[in-house]
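The protein record filed here.
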Amino acid sequence: MRVALVSLYDDRCLGLRSIAAFLREQGHEVALLCFKRFDSVRISPEAPAAWAQAHSGDFPPVTEAHEEGTIFCPYLHPSTEREWTLLVEKIAALRAEVVGVTLTTATVHIARALTDRLHRELPGLPVIWGGVHPTICPEECLQWADRVCVGEGEHTMAEYCADPSRTDIAGLWFRRGREIVRAPLRPLEQELDRFPFAAFGENEWLIESDQLIPLPASNKPYFRGVYSIMTQRGCPFACTYCVHHLTRPMHKGERYLRRRSVGHVLAECEKRARDFDLTGFGFFDDLFVVGAPWIAQFADDYPRRVGLPFGGYAYPLVSTEAMLRQLREAGMVFMGMGIQTGSDYISREIYGRRYGADALLELAGWGRQCGFTLHYELLSNCPYESEEDCRATLRLLLRLPPPDTLCIKRLVIFPNLRIAALDKPRPNLPAATFEFYNQLYLIARHHLIPEEQLMALTEDAYLKSRPEIVQNIALALKYAVEARKAAQGERDRCAAEAQRYTLRGLLRRAKRAVKSRLAG
């Protein structure tokens, strides 16, 4: 069967690439069409057209708070009529017999527009939606899609392509008149080694900048230097803001967290290292440092078979000091951590995490001792957070080893998530107060302003109402650190120089900058 698989604003699309490879193994002719790259863009509120475009979807966008402003992840760049035409014409030229579209909550409105257009211009061509959003909201998606794939898609799509007339395919919902046929959920594949490596560079195109761009395997910038790879599916946890707490109960009685064998993972690494110009590997699992026997075997075999630097995410309770030291010896250089909050109340009662700040301090300490580049992620703008919860996060950042990077994502509550319906108090702090604390977090990461001074700022009502002043402090401190690091190449001397920027002096400079901006 001739199959066109479409990814919206995500050229990495590892799930769709796995389906493409599996269908090819079954003998089907598969094309992969990436409609726009995944692109994170910083936008100023003073750019109203770009700001409006970023908020054009059916749901709030995912954003990050930075010293320079808000970053949208992804930024849904406007698509041109030419790009829509290129996509539809390419699907027609492929003589596709089915189109599979993978989408997230952020791109529902784009999938809807594409499906409507395909129905108009290529009548009779079935369109199947899959991905996270169709899995948790299948009935809604059947308003537009001909069929919806609920859950993992490899076997479901393979059975459909083998016989599109079947109406009993597990995991595939569809409409029969006004009735919705809710197929039983397909059991999770337990042997992930059954799936071939994700498809890259074969019969694949990117639609971007009014062009249809073939993506050959020899294209050096293809992976931006680092190859993203997944060793497992599922997660051992069920945080209330994450889709896993919705999908795990769908598979009661099944092993939810499943992992490929070490040999299968390393074979893919070896192949990609031969085929592409890579600087390293990023293990894209929700949690990489888990499972002591698997980690031990991986750490023994990876240096001999691959040898490139790599990184992944660790987590309290399941990632141990011994595992981290084994991985460091094997070539791990980057460790990510989902800090999320410094408040034990928010962590346990709101986010459903089974640990507090002390466990985070222990894990980060091990990471610093191993010499990893440390990356922390926070969730902010939670409606259940009080100012005391925000202060707890600030205090935690001042106690943790300084991170090399800090990512602050504003919480987005997606459809059906448990966090939306908790019977807990909601302080609903003003947006300006959250932004005030977000900028304090960014200042705290440098460990250059004394704790008592930073904590004193949290009592300043004027600054809370004018977070742009604190943002200017954060920006000045960031530039000072980066400039001295570049000039001297020594972190300790860089920090000593940055200490010259006293909090009082930074406040004066920030207020002058705000007054100048207002006057302009």
Observations:
- The chain has three domains: 2-39+77-193, 220-445, 447-520.
